[in-house]
Amino acid sequence: MINDLKKDGESRMKKSIEALEAGFAKVRTGRAHPSMLNGIMVSYYGSDVPLNQVANVGLDDARTLVVQPFERSMTSTIDKAIRESDMGLNPISADVIRVPLPALTEETRRNMQKLARGEAENAKVAIRNIRRDILGDVKDLLKEKEISEDEERRANDEIQKLTDKYVADVDKMLAAKEAELIQV
Fold first, then answer.
1. pLDDT digit string (tens) for 117-156?
2. Structural domain that includes position 114
3. Do both 16 and 46 map to the same domain?
4. CB contact set of 6 (below 8 Å; sequence gap of 6+)
5. Is the pLDDT of residue 105 over 90?
């Protein structure tokens, strides 16, 4: 029973780390990467769909994204969706859409660091909430006399070690992202 709870907790904590990676992908650094545009929705025949379902997104160089629509008629719609996103990008349309990334100013870098710290803090809170849930389940098992007090203490220690490991992972990821943001 305790092992099942630990496995469940670990899988949920891994999902928190994956969510943090996805959140960090949206935080813009000085370099271009195709996943930056993942959150942009494009109107396609009356319904909103993710950009990557109506176009290929690739790199032209370190500071320029290239968006190749699957249908030429979608070029202006995709251009408009990129412009209206809250990313401050100004695409250039031709056969393909080129999206040059403006250089990050010091103020922009600080704002991006704040966003990254916020994402990391949210991941830590999620991990701690998972720990709280599992410890509550362990206490319930103790109340129902399905485990002994020694087993409960051992489970608490193991769950705390697991939590510490994932919180340390979040800290490492944040440090790497901040180092990436500082690079000019």
1. 999 999 999 999 999 999 999 999 889 888 888 999 999 9
2. 2-26+105-182
3. no
4. 134, 155, 158, 159, 162
5. no
Q: What is the CATH number of the domain that holds 21?
A: 1.10.132.20
Which H or E run includes 83? helix 75-84
Measured from the Cβ of residue 43, the count of other Cβ atoms closer than 10 Å reads 14
Q: What is the pLDDT of residues 152-174, one digit of tens each?
A: 999 999 999 999 999 999 999 99
What amino acid occupies position 140? D
Same domain (yes/no): 89, 71: yes
Euclidean distance between CA atoms 101 and 88, whole angstroms: 9
My answer on whether 120 and 145 are in the same domain is yes
Name the pTM for this structure. 0.71
Residue 49's SS3 state is strand
Cα separation of 74 and 43, whole Å?
9
